Amino acid sequence: MKIRATKAVTWIVAALALAAIALWPTFVKQRENAARAASFPAPAPVNADYLLRDRTIAFWEGMVRKHLSDDMLSPRQLAMQYLQRYRERGDIDDVLRARSMAGRSLREQPRGNIGADVALASVEVTLHQFKAALAETKQLERIDPTEIQMRIREASLDLELGDYANAQRIIAHLPPRKSFDIARDTLVARYDELTGRLAEAREIFERTTAEQNSILDTPAQQRAWFFFRSGEIAFEAGDNDTALDDEDQALAIFPNYADANRLKARFDCALKRWTECRDAAAASATVVPYPETLGYEEDADRALGATAEADRIADLIRTIEKIGNAQHISDRLLAIYYAEHRIHTADAFAIARRELRARDDIFTEDTLAWAAAADGRWNEARVAAGKALRFDTENSLLQYHAGIIALHFGDREEAKRRFQKALSLNPSFHPFYADDARAQLARL
User: Fold this and answer.
1) Which of 112-126, 229-243, 309-323 is the least confident region?
2) Counting CB atoms within 10 angstroms of each CB, which of 49, 106, 319, 358 has the fewest?
């Protein structure tokens, strides 16, 4: 009996030792994360500037009416306020108003009016006129070749246009990092994220978010945006709890933030938390009815058995394409929605091709690949998928799409590699595709 007891104790001690060894990397990582977080600056009180946005705009509108000529400042300030209200509320008319005011400011002072030039370039980016924005930015660089912020802006536009080589060249020649170098770090993190270095991107952006969150006079929406993006990167890395927490933090800073609720809906749908998904999607769509967001709401309603409501939302998305997308800023989102739901696939392909003329980045190529596959255009799908994964980007959806396309052509090893990578990044990356990836692997 004593011998048996001794053996039992020995096995228990051994098991505890093995458990401790297994948990040691997690413990070390948690200690490292805590130490890194402790080194970040403390958050500043939130500046709820959005509550005064209409009043501020009314003031500058009055100044514009009062000074009908020889005033470049008032229309420039008004353009910037219109753009900020668009970021907060998503009314595309505010972007058009900003374009008008920036143009008016430049007519009053065509040279040296950097603020109006930047406002006009911001309008062009918002309207997905990336080539025009790049031309505007390069013109500003010629005025002052030493202005680093314009170089950073150029590289950011290169990432939208798919000129990753030029973006890399600009990054390589930037001065050494300084404390609170937020624009530079945001660019570098995005480049790393797109080119297959997700862990590095996440580490950089975590620091950048903390630094931005510590600046007192930062607009609330801008502070919230950094948490919104942090959540997106966390989800790509499979850290779903942190992803949801980051979106909640964004909403705490800037309540009813459409982008944060949109990503919450995406994450909750992926985790099959259908009620939470529907609620977050509905909250987001109330502010900005993007097809992607409405698609999450539709999927949640179908999963919850609310078929009539889901059908109504599907009809609304079709209406948005017909009358609510005049500026074509929802093109990629429409193409994704149609391809995902295997409806209007010819339209999805045509819309994705149109979007490619505006920007040829990896996500537009992926959209084209998936839309082409949905419409049975497999050769075009394979070419586009190859361009989308030119850097083997650590994004589960891109990996899964490429796996399905490879499988269609009988390339089992390539399909297996893509499915494995998609699931290794985030085993819950999609409410349906993650399960399908596991099922496909079981058959390969």
Assistant:
1) 309-323
2) 319
The DSSP element (H or E) to which 429 belongs, if any, is: none
Pair of tokens at residue 340: 């995902």
* Per-residue pLDDT band at 6 (split at 50, 70, 90): very low
Give the integer Cα–Cα distance in Å for 430 and 444.
Answer: 20
CB 88 within 8 A of CB 53: yes
Q: Considering only CA atoms, which of 146, 227, 156 is closest in space to residue 187?
A: 156
* Burial of 58 from C-beta contacts in 10 A (0-12 / 13-18 / 19+): exposed
Q: Which residues of 331-363 are buried (b: 16+ CB within 10 A; e: fewer)?
A: bbbbbbbbbbbeebbebbbebbbebbebbbbbb
Q: Decide: pTM greater than 0.85.
A: yes
Residue environment code for 3-38, b if the CB has 16+ CB neighbours within 10 A, otherwise e: eeeeeeeeeeeeeeeeeeeeeeeeeeeeeeeeeeee
Closest CA to 362 of 332, 340, 403, 404: 332
Q: Is 51 exposed, middle or buried (0-12, 13-18, 19+ CB in 10 A)?
A: exposed
**Backbone φ and ψ of 434, nearest 5°:** -65, -45
- The Cα 172–Cα 46 span in angstroms is 35
* Distance set, CA 26 to CA 22, 347, 356 (Å): 8, 48, 43
Banded model confidence at residue 112, pLDDT cuts 50, 70, 90: confident
Burial bucket for residue 91 (CB in 10 Å: 0-12, 13-18, 19+): middle
- Tens of pLDDT, residues 137-168: 999 998 888 889 999 999 999 999 999 999 99
Separation of alpha carbons 188 and 259, rounded Å: 22
Enumerate the H helices of 144-175 as residue ranges: 148-161, 164-172
| Token pair recorded at residue 201 | 């991107």
- Could you give the residue ranges of the DSSP H alpha helices within 127-257? 130-143, 148-161, 164-172, 182-194, 198-212, 220-236, 240-253
Pairwise CA distance, residues 120 & 126, whole Å: 10
CA angle in degrees (0–180, nearest 5) for 311-314-320 = 145
Helices (H), 109-146: 114-126, 130-143
CA-CA distance, 62 to 258, in Å (whole number)? Answer: 29
